[in-house]
Amino acid sequence: MPQPPRPSSSSLFRRKPMDAAPEDSGLKRVLGPATLVALGVGATIGAGLFSLTGIAAGDNAGPAVTLSYIIAAIACGFAGLCYSELAGMIPVAGSAYSYAYVTMGELIAWIIGWDLVLEYAVGAATVSVSWSGYVTSLLAGWGIHLPARFTASPFQTVHLADGSTASGIANVPAAFIIILVSLLLIRGTSASAKVNAVIVALKLSVIAAFIGFGIPWIDTANYHPFIPPNEGTFGHFGFSGVMRAAGTIFFAYIGFDALSTAAQETRNPKRDIPIGILGSLAICALAYVTFSFVLTGIVNYADMAGDPAPVATAIDRTHITWLQIAIKFGIIGGFTSVLLMLLLGQSRVFFAMSRDGLLPALFSRTHARFHTPWLSNLFFMVLTGLLAAFLPIAELGHMTSIGTLLAFIIVCVGVLVLRRQAPDAERKFRVAGGPIIPLAGILSCLVVMVSLDGLTWLRLFVWLGIGLGVYFLYGRQKSRLAGAD
Fold it and tell me: Where is this region: Disordered (predicted)?
């Protein structure tokens, strides 16, 4: 019988064996393949579909944003396939952190675990601010006006009812939804999954309604030219614009990787995690391509440049009042399900790191009744709630993207490393084509990372520097593998 790679005892690059997962993690195994697909769709379809489509079409690709979604789906699919192979071999909580611990050692695992805070916690704060904006808009349409200064951070300027301007105090709705979702997660993964399933069904129904009712309003003239000629600058239409748009809307696919953080709450993780990842990616890609095709048919791409709500603009042209309200509910529901998976993923990554001794035990302490890492949920409820309420999260949006892309690259590298370390180990799912797909995943993610601005890179290095300080002062000495040195 093939043996897994032996753990390394090198101080910084000591590795865990693939069979190091504890028999009893304290978490309930309640998730099946259908639930995982629903969670993946819920985590993925959100701000990207409803906001980035119009931005990418109006500024970069025109109607060819549909092609951009296909290109991004292919690139993201490379990472998804690699996640599936590793999830089948290493069915433990922690996602890219756990995979890196087995393949590349403790230091790389710590870096990626710390990096994932940018994807999950900062990402959740960003989404909650968007959630707040749409809820505020929906309530205003019903004549309910929330105090403007309590829907914005202190770094934002708001317009008051008397026409004057003032600085915000705190984004209370954003903090409220963080608290609500965190309490739901503490209540239990099964209950959270049921709520998510309802939201996903509503969201997909709204998308289907937009497509179905929107098709008669398509003006085929809006598709000409399908790829607008380049304006002389890279990324502004032409083929380079299609590629730039693919980089922009690539982040619309972020979320599926959070499924792998729930491996220890899945009944048959070696089979069900790959199904959940690839199934949710396929559904989201189909929804994105179809949705963007209808959207650019209803509204000319030039009219979407600078429009913060292109979907609302499109649906307003149908003059179907109930559909306009339904779309807003769908968007709010989309944001809510994304928050659910981001906060779930964050608590499970720190759960795994705590179980390994790299973080204090409170992050892996489970509730006696609900069997969830409730203290970890509470910690990130406070941290993410404060970020959402008091900081201009929009300026940190790229941090979420660069953190996610780094995680994707490490997962793709992990597949190549593990094939070399343990070529005969059992693989419930194996990416075909040898090293081609993992290398394609690494290259595509690097291309997108390079396109991000220098300030984003600087923030990443500063954040990772803080994390390394925590590791060398605490994690390295407390690690469960420290005794092997």
Answer: 1-26
- Pairing relationship of beta strands 165-167 and 157-159 according to DSSP bridges: antiparallel
Peptide bond into 225 cis (omega under 30): yes
Q: Which one has a higher pLDDT value, 107 or 311?
A: 107
Helix (H/G/I), strand (E/B), else coil: 233: coil
235 belongs to a structural domain: yes
CA distance 123 to 126: 5
Classified as helix, coil or strand, 218 is coil
Evaluate if pTM is beyond 0.85.
no
According to the 3-state scheme, what is the secondary structure of 152-204?
CCCCCEEECCCCCEEECCCEHHHHHHHHHHHHHHHHCHHHHHHHHHHHHHHHH
Q: What CATH number does residue 60 fall under?
A: 1.20.1740.10
CA separation (Å) from 20 to 181, 269, 286?
31, 15, 38
CB of 68 closer than 8 Å to CB of 249: yes
Instruction: Report the 10 Å Cβ neighbour count for 239.
Output: 12
Determine the Cα–Cα distance for residues 399 and 295; give it in Å rounded to an integer: 28
415 domain residue, yes or no? yes
Domain containing residue 63: 33-472
Q: Is residue 78 part of a domain?
A: yes
Domain count, the chain: 1
Q: List, for residues 119-144, the tens digit of each pLDDT value.
A: 788 888 888 887 888 788 788 878 88
